UniProtKB/TrEMBL annotation:
GO terms for molecular function: pyridoxine 5'-phosphate synthase activity. The keyword Hydrolase does not apply. This is Pyridoxine 5'-phosphate synthase. It catalyses: 3-amino-2-oxopropyl phosphate + 1-deoxy-D-xylulose 5-phosphate = pyridoxine 5'-phosphate + phosphate + 2 H2O + H(+). It comes from Rhodoferax sediminis.
Length: 248
């Protein structure tokens, strides 16, 4: 059984760096240390307002990852806004289409494919022509998985905030069942599965133990908060241990 890959989202490092015009903490150095510690990928979400990841970060990370051919670069964003420019310029292994508006504080919902599916289809096809795998950021709704496959997606990224919010409450089991049903529907539709948003070292193993077929988790906020205490390398190794625990 394939073990789930860890893709580290470095948005937060850029957000800290942007507080002052001093150029540190370095986004590329954070990514390098995470790769050296065993992370299988790096994720960025270059939002139009450049609140954290800026175009030069994307270019510098793409350059860094050329030296790591067995690792992946995942660029997230809204393809109706600025994402496709980054996909055309940097040719990442994966792009994740996220339906965020420009002023959203963070990602908080998946695509409504009944509304946007046909508009997404040519952009998915273009990303494929550029050599990128396409993942659609989706809520955990089993009935939406067939539509994701129908518009050409390779993967769905299940938006895991509702699971994380229920962690440690009586609603945890129901959320896990919801994500398990959605993952099975995705598998039945011929999709692969990613997952992300508010995952952390407490809730990660239980999710991966129950939800089938998760190929990749992209984790940023909690992992970087842990790295402020433990350092990048020890933190990545701890998250990899959580993943191992799920498959033990
Ligand atoms: C798509 C997703 O759930 C996250 O990667 C999100 O992109 C995080 O964005 P911020 O770091 O701007 O909150
Ligand atoms: N796609 C999810 C991601 O990249 C990071 O989300 P978070 O861990 O910062 O919530």
């Amino acid at each position: 059984m394939n073990k789930t890959a860890l893709s580290v989202n470095v948005n937060l490092v850029a957000q800290v760096r942007n507080r002052r015009n001093l150029g540190f903490p370095s986004v590329t150095r954070a990514a390098l240390l995470c790769l050296q510690a065993g992370a299988q990928g790096i994720t960025v979400h270059p939002r139009p307002d450049e609140r954290h990841i800026r175009p030069h970060d994307v270019q510098e990370l793409a350059e860094l990852l050329k030296a790591w051919p067995d690792r992946e670069f995942n660029i997230e964003g809204n393809p109706f806004q600025n994402l496709m420019g980054f996909v055309r310029a940097q040719r990442p292994q994966q792009c994740t289409f996220v339906p965020d508006s420009e002023d959203q504080p963070t990602s908080d919902h998946g695509w409504d494919l009944t509304r946007d599916g046909e508009r997404l289809r040519p952009l998915i096809a273009e990303a494929h022509a550029l050599g990128a795998r396409v993942s659609l950021f989706m809520d955990a709704e089993p009935q939406a998985m067939a539509a994701a496959k129908a518009v050409g997606a390779d993967r769905v990224e299940l938006y895991t905030e509702p699971y994380a919010a229920a962690w440690g409450t009586p609603g945890q089991a129901a959320q896990l069942q919801r994500f398990t049903r959605t993952a099975q529907a995705a598998i039945d539709a011929g999709l692969e599965i990613n997952a992300g948003h508010d995952l952390n070292r407490d809730n990660l193993a239980a999710f991966l133990k129950q939800v089938p077929g998760v190929r990749e988790v992209s984790i940023g906020h909690a992992l970087m908060a842990d790295a402020l205490e433990l350092g990048y390398a020890a933190t990545v190794k701890e998250y990899l241990r959580c993943i191992d625990q799920a498959f033990a």
